[in-house]
Amino acid sequence: MTMPRLATRSSARPKLIPLLRSSLVGELLAWIYLHPEMSYSVAELAQRFNASQRALGKEADQLADAGLIRIERRGNMRLLRADQAGPLARPLTELLALTYGPIAVLTDVLASVPGVDEAYIYGLWAERYAGVAGPPPRDVDVLVVGEADDGDLGQAAGAAERRLGREVNVYRVSIGYWRSHHSDPFLAAVRSRPICAVV
Fold first, then answer.
1. Residue 87's Cα: distance from chain center in Å?
2. Which tens digits make up the pLDDT trace of 78-132?
3. Any residues with CB less than 8 A from the CB of 127 and at least 6 apart, and which?
4. How many of the other CB atoms lie within 10 Å of CB of 63?
5. CA within 20 to 30 Å of 191's CA: 30, 40, 81, 131, which one?
C-alpha cells in the first residue's frame, strides 16, 4: 500500500486519535513505541512513512521536547526511540497499540477479504490487550473463521506485516469447525486464553 506524501497527510485530521496533530505523528509514535527495543534514523522513518526528512525531523524535535521520544546522535545521524522512562510511556503504548497496532491494522486489511466471517487475535498480543504484562510480542497470531482464499489471506497478512513491522501468522478454520469442534486441542487452547475480535 502506497502512503500519500506528507503534504497531503499533514492537513488531514487523524481518524484514530483525533487529539494528535496529524496521522503522521500517530504513525510515528506508534512505530517507535510498539518497537521499544529499537532505534530508528530519521532517514529510514521518513522513507517508511513517505515523508520528507525535514518534516519528520521537525515532528521528532517536537515529540522530544514533549518528553515522548529520545533523540540520540551518532555522527550526522539522529536516532529516535521511545522514552520508556517517562510517566506517559505505559498508557501511551497501550493507546497506540489500540489505535495503530494489530487490532486497528488487521481490522482494516481483513475487512475487504471475501469469506472472512470472523477473525481474532490470539496469543501474546491478545494477552497484552487484556492487560497481561510483558514485552511487545515479536509476531501477531490471527485466527480467521470462514472460507477465505489462502492467497487473499496471505496478501492481507503481508500488508499487515508491512504496516506493523512484525510477522503476522494466519490460521484459518471453517465456521462450522470453529463452532462445533471444542475438543480440538489447538482451538481449545485459543479459547482458554484471551482473544480479541478484529472482524
1. 22
2. 999 999 998 889 899 888 888 889 998 999 999 999 999 999 999 999 998 888 8
3. 134, 193, 194
4. 20
5. 30
